[in-house]
Design goal:
200 residues; Thiol Ester Dehydrase, Chain A
Length: 200
Protein backbone atom coordinates (compact mmCIF):
# COMPACT_ATOMS: atom_id res chain seq x y z
CA UNK A 1 0.00 0.00 0.00
CA UNK A 2 1.00 3.65 -0.22
CA UNK A 3 1.30 3.84 3.56
CA UNK A 4 3.46 0.72 3.74
CA UNK A 5 5.82 2.03 1.07
CA UNK A 6 6.54 5.10 3.20
CA UNK A 7 7.68 2.93 6.12
CA UNK A 8 9.93 0.49 4.26
CA UNK A 9 13.04 2.59 3.66
CA UNK A 10 15.60 2.90 6.48
CA UNK A 11 18.58 5.18 5.68
CA UNK A 12 21.88 3.38 6.25
CA UNK A 13 24.53 5.95 5.30
CA UNK A 14 25.12 9.61 6.06
CA UNK A 15 24.29 10.55 2.46
CA UNK A 16 21.01 8.63 2.63
CA UNK A 17 20.09 10.22 5.96
CA UNK A 18 20.85 13.71 4.68
CA UNK A 19 18.93 13.21 1.43
CA UNK A 20 15.98 11.67 3.28
CA UNK A 21 15.80 14.53 5.76
CA UNK A 22 16.12 17.18 3.04
CA UNK A 23 13.31 15.71 0.92
CA UNK A 24 10.95 15.10 3.84
CA UNK A 25 11.39 18.60 5.25
CA UNK A 26 11.51 20.55 1.99
CA UNK A 27 8.72 23.16 1.67
CA UNK A 28 7.42 21.46 -1.50
CA UNK A 29 7.00 18.12 0.28
CA UNK A 30 5.40 19.79 3.30
CA UNK A 31 2.99 21.70 1.08
CA UNK A 32 1.89 18.62 -0.84
CA UNK A 33 1.67 16.48 2.30
CA UNK A 34 -0.75 19.01 3.79
CA UNK A 35 -2.97 19.01 0.68
CA UNK A 36 -5.77 16.42 1.05
CA UNK A 37 -6.09 16.15 -2.75
CA UNK A 38 -2.68 14.42 -2.91
CA UNK A 39 -1.61 11.03 -1.61
CA UNK A 40 2.03 10.24 -0.84
CA UNK A 41 3.96 7.06 -1.60
CA UNK A 42 7.32 5.61 -2.60
CA UNK A 43 6.36 3.79 -5.80
CA UNK A 44 9.63 1.89 -6.27
CA UNK A 45 8.98 0.20 -2.91
CA UNK A 46 5.48 -0.90 -3.95
CA UNK A 47 7.00 -3.47 -6.29
CA UNK A 48 7.17 -6.95 -4.76
CA UNK A 49 10.45 -7.29 -2.87
CA UNK A 50 11.59 -10.35 -4.81
CA UNK A 51 11.27 -8.40 -8.08
CA UNK A 52 13.00 -5.16 -7.08
CA UNK A 53 16.56 -6.22 -7.88
CA UNK A 54 15.64 -7.00 -11.50
CA UNK A 55 13.79 -3.70 -11.95
CA UNK A 56 15.70 -0.84 -13.58
CA UNK A 57 14.41 1.94 -11.33
CA UNK A 58 13.90 -0.12 -8.15
CA UNK A 59 17.14 -2.09 -8.49
CA UNK A 60 19.82 -1.01 -10.99
CA UNK A 61 19.19 2.73 -10.57
CA UNK A 62 18.78 2.57 -6.78
CA UNK A 63 21.48 3.06 -4.17
CA UNK A 64 24.58 5.10 -3.29
CA UNK A 65 25.78 7.31 -6.12
CA UNK A 66 22.60 6.70 -8.10
CA UNK A 67 19.03 7.38 -6.94
CA UNK A 68 20.25 7.67 -3.38
CA UNK A 69 16.89 7.28 -1.60
CA UNK A 70 13.61 5.93 -3.01
CA UNK A 71 11.78 8.80 -4.77
CA UNK A 72 8.85 10.34 -2.91
CA UNK A 73 5.73 10.75 -5.06
CA UNK A 74 2.59 12.81 -4.51
CA UNK A 75 -0.36 12.00 -6.80
CA UNK A 76 -3.45 14.16 -7.13
CA UNK A 77 -6.75 12.31 -6.92
CA UNK A 78 -7.84 10.77 -10.19
CA UNK A 79 -4.33 11.03 -11.60
CA UNK A 80 -4.83 14.68 -12.50
CA UNK A 81 -1.21 15.47 -11.67
CA UNK A 82 1.80 14.16 -9.78
CA UNK A 83 5.03 15.41 -8.25
CA UNK A 84 8.10 13.24 -7.60
CA UNK A 85 11.11 14.42 -5.55
CA UNK A 86 14.41 12.56 -5.84
CA UNK A 87 18.18 12.86 -5.54
CA UNK A 88 20.38 11.85 -8.50
CA UNK A 89 23.96 10.88 -7.64
CA UNK A 90 27.23 11.03 -9.56
CA UNK A 91 27.15 7.46 -10.91
CA UNK A 92 24.38 8.22 -13.41
CA UNK A 93 26.38 10.45 -15.72
CA UNK A 94 26.97 10.53 -19.46
CA UNK A 95 29.32 13.50 -19.61
CA UNK A 96 31.26 13.79 -16.31
CA UNK A 97 29.19 15.63 -13.73
CA UNK A 98 26.02 15.60 -15.86
CA UNK A 99 23.17 13.09 -15.61
CA UNK A 100 22.87 10.86 -18.68
CA UNK A 101 19.99 11.80 -20.97
CA UNK A 102 18.89 8.16 -21.03
CA UNK A 103 18.45 8.26 -17.26
CA UNK A 104 16.22 11.33 -17.56
CA UNK A 105 14.26 9.60 -20.34
CA UNK A 106 13.67 6.54 -18.15
CA UNK A 107 12.56 8.69 -15.22
CA UNK A 108 10.15 10.64 -17.45
CA UNK A 109 8.79 7.43 -18.93
CA UNK A 110 8.09 5.95 -15.52
CA UNK A 111 6.98 9.21 -13.90
CA UNK A 112 4.42 10.01 -16.60
CA UNK A 113 3.16 6.42 -16.55
CA UNK A 114 2.66 6.48 -12.78
CA UNK A 115 0.61 9.66 -13.08
CA UNK A 116 -1.55 7.98 -15.73
CA UNK A 117 -2.04 4.87 -13.54
CA UNK A 118 -4.42 6.76 -11.27
CA UNK A 119 -6.49 8.03 -14.21
CA UNK A 120 -7.10 4.57 -15.70
CA UNK A 121 -9.62 1.94 -14.55
CA UNK A 122 -7.13 -0.78 -13.54
CA UNK A 123 -4.26 1.50 -12.44
CA UNK A 124 -1.76 0.18 -14.98
CA UNK A 125 -0.37 1.55 -18.26
CA UNK A 126 2.27 0.81 -20.86
CA UNK A 127 4.05 3.48 -22.90
CA UNK A 128 2.81 3.77 -26.49
CA UNK A 129 4.68 6.97 -27.39
CA UNK A 130 7.15 9.16 -25.50
CA UNK A 131 8.55 12.42 -26.89
CA UNK A 132 11.32 14.24 -25.00
CA UNK A 133 12.91 17.65 -25.38
CA UNK A 134 16.10 18.25 -23.40
CA UNK A 135 16.34 21.86 -22.24
CA UNK A 136 19.37 22.16 -19.94
CA UNK A 137 22.19 19.90 -18.70
CA UNK A 138 21.26 18.15 -15.45
CA UNK A 139 24.06 18.37 -12.85
CA UNK A 140 24.73 15.21 -10.85
CA UNK A 141 24.53 15.11 -7.05
CA UNK A 142 21.41 17.25 -7.02
CA UNK A 143 17.76 17.06 -6.07
CA UNK A 144 15.24 17.19 -8.91
CA UNK A 145 11.47 17.31 -9.25
CA UNK A 146 9.45 15.41 -11.84
CA UNK A 147 6.06 16.99 -12.50
CA UNK A 148 3.38 15.28 -14.59
CA UNK A 149 -0.17 16.11 -15.63
CA UNK A 150 -2.81 13.96 -17.30
CA UNK A 151 -4.33 16.05 -20.08
CA UNK A 152 -6.85 13.62 -21.60
CA UNK A 153 -8.33 10.19 -20.90
CA UNK A 154 -10.28 7.98 -23.32
CA UNK A 155 -11.18 4.50 -22.08
CA UNK A 156 -7.82 2.67 -21.86
CA UNK A 157 -5.75 5.62 -23.12
CA UNK A 158 -4.23 8.51 -21.15
CA UNK A 159 -2.25 11.43 -22.55
CA UNK A 160 0.29 12.86 -20.14
CA UNK A 161 2.81 15.70 -20.17
CA UNK A 162 5.56 16.49 -17.72
CA UNK A 163 9.02 17.78 -16.98
CA UNK A 164 12.06 17.30 -14.81
CA UNK A 165 13.26 20.46 -13.10
CA UNK A 166 15.64 21.50 -10.35
CA UNK A 167 14.39 21.55 -6.76
CA UNK A 168 14.68 25.15 -5.50
CA UNK A 169 16.79 25.63 -2.39
CA UNK A 170 14.76 28.70 -1.36
CA UNK A 171 11.19 29.90 -2.01
CA UNK A 172 12.60 32.78 -4.05
CA UNK A 173 14.52 30.52 -6.43
CA UNK A 174 12.90 29.67 -9.78
CA UNK A 175 13.16 26.01 -10.88
CA UNK A 176 15.19 25.32 -14.02
CA UNK A 177 13.48 22.99 -16.51
CA UNK A 178 15.93 20.25 -17.53
CA UNK A 179 13.76 18.10 -19.81
CA UNK A 180 10.14 18.04 -20.97
CA UNK A 181 8.05 15.16 -22.29
CA UNK A 182 4.67 14.16 -23.65
CA UNK A 183 3.39 10.60 -23.70
CA UNK A 184 0.50 8.36 -24.62
CA UNK A 185 -0.08 5.61 -22.07
CA UNK A 186 -2.35 2.65 -22.75
CA UNK A 187 -3.79 0.25 -20.22
CA UNK A 188 -3.19 -3.34 -21.42
CA UNK A 189 -6.19 -5.55 -21.96
CA UNK A 190 -4.71 -8.00 -19.46
CA UNK A 191 -4.53 -5.35 -16.73
CA UNK A 192 -5.10 -7.98 -14.05
CA UNK A 193 -1.41 -8.90 -14.38
CA UNK A 194 -0.72 -5.91 -12.14
CA UNK A 195 -1.43 -8.06 -9.10
CA UNK A 196 1.44 -10.33 -9.99
CA UNK A 197 4.12 -7.73 -9.45
CA UNK A 198 2.67 -5.04 -7.16
CA UNK A 199 2.88 -5.55 -3.41
CA UNK A 200 -0.52 -3.97 -2.75
Amino acid sequence: SDEDSLRLFKPASLQEMQAEEYINNHPLALELRANPAFKESRPTLKLREDLRTSSLTSGVFAGPGRIVVPPVMFVEEGGKSSVVIMYLGNEMCGYPGMIHGGVLATLLDEGLARCAFEALPNKLAMTATLNINYRKPSPADNFVVLRARTTKVERRKAWVEGQIETLPKTPEETPVVLAEATALMIEPRQAEVRGKFMSD
